[in-house]
Amino acid sequence: MPDSPQVTALQTAAEQVRQQLNLPAFNADAVTHLARFIEVQRTELPTAEREGVVTALGCFLGQCLVQTYRGEWAAGRDGTTGVGIANRFFFNPFQLVNTQLNEGESASVATFFASVPARLAAPPAARKGWIS
Question: How distant is the alpha carbon of residue 123 from its chain centre?
Answer without folding.
Answer: 22
